[in-house]
Amino acid sequence: MSDVTARPRAVGLPMDRIDGEQKVTGTATYAYEWPLDQPVYLFPLQSTIAVGRITGVDGALAEAEPGVLAVLSHLNAPTLTRPDDPELAVLQSDEVAWRGQFIGAVVAESLETARRAAGLVRVDYESRPPDVMLRADRDDLYSPVHAAAFGTGGGELQDGSPADSVLGDVETALAASPTMVDATYSTPMYHNNPMEPHTAVVTWSDGELVVRCSSQGVTMSRALISGVLGLEPARVRVVSPHVGGAFGSKVYPHSYAVLAAMAARIVRRPVKFTLTRQQMFALVGYRPASIQRIRLAAGRDGRLTAIAHDVIEQTAKAKGYAEQVGVCSRMMYAAPHRRTTHRLAPLDVPVPTIMRAPGEAQGMYALESALDEMAIACGLDPVEFRIRNEPEVHPESGLPFSSCHLTECLREGARRAGWDRRDPAPRSRREGRWLVGTGVACSTYPSPRYPGNAATIRIGPDGRYTVRIAAADMGTGTWTALTQIAADALSVPVGQVEMRIGDSALPAASVAGFSAGINSWGTAIWEAADRLRARLRAEHDGIAPPEGLEVTAELPGGNPEAERYAMHSFGAQFAEVRIDEDTGEVRVARLLGMFDVGRVINPKTARSQLIGGMTQGMSMALFEHSVLDPRFGHVVNHDFAQYHIASHADVHAVEAHWLDQPDPFTNPMGAKGLGEVGIVGTAAAIANAVHHATGVRIRELPITLDKLVS
Amino acid sequence: MDLEIELRVDGTEHRLTVDTRTTLLDALRERLGNTSPKKGCDHGQCGACTLLLGGRRILGCLALAVAHQGADIVTSAGLADGELHPLQRSFIAHDAFQCGYCTPGQIVSAAGMLREAREGWPSAVSKDPGAVDVVLDDEEIAERMSGNLCRCAAYANIVPAIAEVAHR
Amino acid sequence: MRPFRYERADEVSAAVTTLVREPEAAYLAGGTNLVDLMRLEVMTPEVLIDVRRLTSDRIEELPDGGLRIGAAVTGSDLAADLRVRRRYPVLSQALLSGASGQLRNLATTGGNLLQRTRCPYFQNVTTPCNKRAPGSGCSALEGYQRDMAILGASPACVATHPSDMAVALAALDAVVTVAGPDAERRIPLTELHRLPDTTPERDTVLERGELITGVELPPPHGAARSRYRKVRDRASYAFALVSVAVALEVADGSVRDVRIALGGVAHKPWRAATAEAVLRGAPATRESFMDAAAAELSAARPLPGNAFKVPLARNTMVSTLLELLEEAR
């Protein structure tokens, strides 16, 4: 067990963001904004068929436009090294696997010319009818194999876990149960849609490639980009100090960077390339749609006897992606008989990827909706029903939790939300034309630590410290939180610490994702600080030597305690919704979350992450929905006017609270992840509140007014 | 087709030749090196490129530069005149952003919005459309700021950050 | 975006002459929709004639007690005008429920009327669309239909007109003034926009070169109370699924006068003349309102993907009428 209370000083303080002034003035440099000498502009060509092959490319009209420097297609593109990730094999064949895939590019002296000329390239195809609709009765569903990190990692699902799990005998338990829920829930495609579009600004010099992009992990970006271009990683530098939002979409998708690098090599000029909002709907991933059947059985004592969660999800034929949608049902609730399965429908669709809380975001909508249905069927309060079914240990692995304060979250959240005043009867509360209801759901996300982290700390002769690690700040507050961690680890004020992140020239770091960032990077920094302090004491009487002193800690492994403990963040979310009885419009008057996220490094930025997650969860519940056209295979509503994300006016009271109980095993800081847990369960809390308000159970997201108007 | 135009940006005069297709946003970002306004959608659907044009908030991505010859433009970089603007300080104190990409647009929009409210302009949620004075409660601020999307969803911090400045 | 020449005319007549002379020219006002569509190459003019400073940007009193709104008046200025807010609240509300503060500061009254449909297939040059490319087919007929029309559509086009302002103006019996190659003319707002029929490429009855110079509002109706109610997925910054502009005058428990227009349901702002006829002189009750809405919507021909708009339009009409009735008491 780590000593988590030894040196707390900066950790726990609501420090303002270190990069705050740059961000409010707009002077923080995002990828597209690096000043460059004589840049040129790239605009991509996208396939206008979903499946088939390209039979001809005529770039003559484009090439004739003044200012056009190159027209790229599979006919003249450089050959790439075959990547692990097939999405990165840009312009390597005449095959088209989804509508909107990169099939070429125009490079020109100006943005306006590049875009115009791209529209002048004539492409001929041999087209086949696309198959893009996810249905449960498809006959080609398959069990995912080896999908982690696109075949480079172990395990069957994207997170490395097995596709199926079985304990006991679910069918017999269901048959024998006095109370049963059997319901199917579905979630649509969701697009990450960070505000900053995906960007690559590429410069070749002396055989070295500098890619300024918007990345959740420059070390991984360098590996992916150098690998496909056939370059030594040391000859590729990826720079990404500021990231204008990502939500998962800037971990794996890098085809745009590969395309820009190819173009830069051909035209021998710096190339600037940023996707349009519309292009992002075909090229940088999305949360795949799911159909989830949940069956629950409970005894007369209100305890679950069986949990079955069978998931069907969409994936791309171009690249298998299998999300861990049902894994939440492996750990949330106790029951002797349990089963989860994951099956994939291979479709002619754009390649899915990680989106905030991959797996749990969709899975917990289904599971926590079903829990609500079961609580009602058992005649129990949904808060009490959940507490009654909390497991002592991880129900499948049998490992104890490193820390779990879910019951406290439920009880304290219920107290703050005024849950005891709730009349459980649906349609029991009306205010003018509004039907009002409240709902609850739990939140959870694993709290992993990733291998492959190193941190270097240098103390200068002036006693100031420079900390270097290739971490990423996508708005998560990494810059600030790591400074606080380093200051405490070094036992110095934060003003003495300078943090450098977002550059692959820095010591390697794992990606900002899966709520693993602070856990992984902070541990490396903590370790480096311990070693530096030890050497300072042992070799220099604790005084900075004139030449300075530098120490690097490399942590190739993850958390060794993970073999003995199951590590998860938890939370309970309470929603109050109002529904216009005439129109079916749903408004969320209040969201309250009570979280168990270990020690909070910076309450100010942590709160922002949690309310941001919860608000995204509301957006997922009520608005967002990428609509695939079955004839053309494209996302019809591919812009911000049609793909609605929550706006200011949709947001009312959003409160995030936490217990601030350090976890003894996750890391030296006692922190657990909080990037994902905020979005998990929100949609279910809202769906449960909608049911309470109206008596209508919506099992298909999003909860739009057409499902409620009558 | 190229045309020569003059723009005043954050107090500095510029003379430049632009393609008629160039928007104010691209003129600022690509030609004048002012990347404070951001490009989030390029179609007037997100608000990240909000500028003050003659003191009024507009969207730089839908304004052709040639149609705004001689325009006086202020970006968030220009709002900070030597020291941070009160809205900028309030945004930092309230942590009214995460990734920061929509932030300059939010702040410029808020500055324009506060002026509109001072002039008595109503909004879609104003109870009495005929009233001369605007009471900027949270609902009013949120409605008036709804043209600025924030995917990080800092809304619940942005509204109090603006309210603090509005009620000062 | 296709390269284009940018021109600014000094007089309306010169602008009209230029536009008629050039084979592919367009007027530019606020640009909030045109620039957007040019970037997508949905519209590809070779010449833009900037008319923003050409038409009036003022709102003036008319001798009969009405108002004349210059075509260049921005949405913001129109919505904020105290005369509009007090005499025609439905118009101010409609404007404020549309777009965003930034867009309203750029967009003009004339441009608002002439904005194009936001049908996603119209806006995507890689999919068939009869409005954009006549004869190519209507993708929405068997596609995504949430925003499509339920009234007055044709097999050639099921798009809706996106303006909120125009819906209020339709209810207010506004008149559009137009300058053309030959003469000026006045067009009732309800006759400005067309139904798609077999020529959906034509949004309005305007002839080539005609330029909207202003909108005239007749004097407000005596004791009428008016309201704009917009229903949409997101609470703000979204187009209407259904909207209703209503002006209601009640005397002695009966409907003395009523004006109803619907948005989001047709290729044009939909003046609900059938509902109005049912209501005039009828008792001002929920039953009458229900009957009127049902009568109006009996002509609805929804698609599978937008059938919800029929009950939605009915309920929105009835509840808005009831609210106005409640206020009148």
From TrEMBL, chain A:
Q: Does the keyword Oxidoreductase apply?
A: yes
Q: Which UniProt keywords apply?
A: Molybdenum, Oxidoreductase
Boundaries of every Aldehyde oxidase/xanthine dehydrogenase a/b hammerhead domain copy: 25-129
Q: Which SMART domains match?
A: Ald_Xan_dh_C
A GO molecular-function annotation:
oxidoreductase activity
- Does the entry feature the keyword Cytoplasm, yes or no? no
Write the protein's name. Answer: Xanthine dehydrogenase family protein molybdopterin-binding subunit
Automatic annotation (TrEMBL), chain B:
Q: What is this protein called?
A: (2Fe-2S)-binding protein
Source species: Streptomyces malaysiensis
Instruction: Give the record's keywords alphabetically.
Output: 2Fe-2S, Iron, Iron-sulfur, Metal-binding, Oxidoreductase
Task: Give the record's pathway.
Answer: Alkaloid degradation; nicotine degradation
GO MF annotation terms: 2 iron, 2 sulfur cluster binding; metal ion binding; oxidoreductase activity, acting on the aldehyde or oxo group of donors
InterPro entries the record matches: 2Fe-2S-bd (IPR002888), 2Fe-2S-bd_dom_sf (IPR036884), 2Fe-2S_ferredoxin-like_sf (IPR036010), 2Fe-2S_ferredoxin-type (IPR001041), 2Fe2S_fd_BS (IPR006058), Aldehyde_Oxdr_Iron-Sulfur (IPR052914), Beta-grasp_dom_sf (IPR012675)
Q: Which PANTHER family match?
A: OXIDOREDUCTASE WITH IRON-SULFUR SUBUNIT (PTHR45331:SF2), OXIDOREDUCTASE, IRON-SULPHUR BINDING SUBUNIT-RELATED-RELATED (PTHR45331)
* Residue ranges occupied by any 2Fe-2S ferredoxin-type domain in the UniProt entry: 3-79
UniProtKB/TrEMBL annotation, chain C:
Q: Cross-referenced SUPFAM superfamilies, in alphabetical order?
A: CO dehydrogenase flavoprotein C-terminal domain-like (SSF55447), FAD-binding/transporter-associated domain-like (SSF56176)
**UniProt KW keywords:** Oxidoreductase
Q: Which GO terms describe its molecular function?
A: FAD binding; oxidoreductase activity
Give the FAD-binding PCMH-type domain ranges.
Answer: 1-222
Record PROSITE patterns: FAD_PCMH (PS51387)
Q: What is this protein called?
A: Xanthine dehydrogenase family protein subunit M
Native species: Streptomyces malaysiensis subsp. samsunensis
